[in-house]
Amino acid sequence: MIVLVVEDEPGTREALVELVKELGYEASAAGSVAEAGAALTRLVPDVCITDLGLPDGDGLDVVRAAKAAGHDCDVLVLTGKGSILAAVEAMKAGAHDFLLKPIKTAQLATALSQLSERHEEARGLLPAVLPDPAVAGGLAGMVGRSAPMLEVFRLLTRVARSNAPVMITGESGTGKEIAASTVHLLSRRAARPFIAVNCGAISPTLVESELFGHEKGAFTGADRRRAGTFEMAHGGTLFLDEVTEMPPELQVKFLRVLETRTFRRVGGSEELDMDIRLVASSNRDLVDAVRRETFRADLFYRLNVFPLRLPPLRERKEDVPLLATHFLSQIEEKERRGFSSFEGPALAALSGHDWPGNVRELRNAIHRAYVLSDPPAIQAEAAEAVLTDSGAAELRPVAGDEGTWPAVPVRVGETLQAVEKKLLTATLFAVKGDKRVAAELLGVSLKTIYNKLKEYQLEP
Amino acid sequence: MLRVEKMDEALPPDRPGGVAAALGTLRHALADPLSTAGLKLELLERRLAAVPPDGSSQVDRVRGAKADLAAAGRLIDLLSRLASIVGETPAETSVGDLCRAAGVPLEEDAASRTRLLLRRLASVDALRIVASFVRSQDPGGPPLQVRAETAPGQVSLWIEALGGRGEANPERLFHLPRGEERAEDLFLARAGIESDGGRLQVVEREGRIVALLSWPRPAPAADVGAPA
Asked: Which pTM does this prediction carry?
């Protein structure tokens, strides 16, 4: 692998070149944007390590020059400013990753080793050509061929090969976790772990230990050392679902970890290197959360390097038949009752619905229709019954006036568990799946909502 | 914290000039020689390790020097965080408002509503850190006791853990940002409060930790047209 080092400080440049060679790569050096531009005309580097502050320009110019030269060159940016904004700008301009000065040699070695693996794979094999999502009807685990989804697939494919953090937004049920795992699957980290953490579902007192791990004796009950999700996801991708629910104290620590790429277990003194790709998601209005100061703006900028919005199902109704068929196949694969299709009117009924609970609601509806139908096709009556049963007609999302909210019918003798499940389902439906609002309405904690959803298997 | 209006808005430009920029530049200037030294030590360690047994006896010394450099690298990150504090524009707020934003329980009264001119975000972060520190002295104990008081020219906030056993000489943690992870946060909390002319004192009283934060009250504006 050929590495071009662009650094104006001669001592750092020479030491960097020497270390890159020591690590087993070929290395060339440039001391300015102009020298880097000249080098890019005669060299075809696989990786360019560039300082951000150069005497005749910005290191971002080197990023742009490398991209313009048309080489498949990954750019690692070195920044001494300790500024989130500089790092974010570099990644937005197309840098693969950034390293904060003072350079940590272990981090540099890891970054180069990963890029080397990627380039070796690319040389040994034909470039991986993904099937056209418009023809295949989706990308990895995501299904759709509507215009909004083709745009999502295009952006996902583009961002997956970089190391840039991705912020996925979208209503509840639009498939944010599947989108996150697709980013992982299409990245060079695909063979490493994909770890998902729901920031709203972890007890605030345990969230720090969950993320960073803890040492034996760090607190009451910590009877042995435990790895946190940062360690478990090492080399892979960490998905932070509902990131706006992260407690404020933890946001400060988390930001620091993102900047320094190091962390310590709770109660520990050893600094551990962090090598993870971050994907975060939220179904809340992030800008509003920042404005209300429940979410730090600096953390928002750091995570929002590559924003990706997933459209609600009502904005891509043409995907409903494709999704319905996909879910039917999945269910049939497990239950094997001999279903292979939908009756035309059944699909028409499903396609005419607004699906406020989005893809998740559609999948649950298909499952219920599967139970109500006789093989080989899902019948129109079953689809109609499912749409009526779901309470869709009555339980349209309404404005926050409690008096106008629909009642949930309860029979004498019905189990408390059944009533609870019914009330939880109806409340979530009425508030468009916003679990925090549902928790407030029902007078329980957000964590309780997550626990109940798990208990009643209302979410995957 | 930075403010954002739209999710896709351009990132705000760095504030030109001033102490914040100087701190950023200083961090940058320190990072280069520290990088060079770190890289050279790494090369030296690799070469010494390759010539045992003569080299291996020196490797530990090189590793020790690398650890010292890593500690220095961590400390210079504080400059960026100090720059954020200094770069924030003071705005009118109150102790009650700060406590609400920091999640510190404070009953509303006249003292809590007194208007102050502070770096609000730095103050909220500082308050959160101080409260968390006091809380850590009495984990599982009763809620913190928090009260605001006004005195001529200043507003004070007392944060006290009712139980537990306080650290000996706790204030030293707020003055020397090394030795343990939280000391850096405590150091920054002090800087945040003092940047507005405030003061942070942490004392041990009857075996309990008490934090006293105080800020100067802005002088009342002179009456327009008042007789001389």
From this structure: 0.73
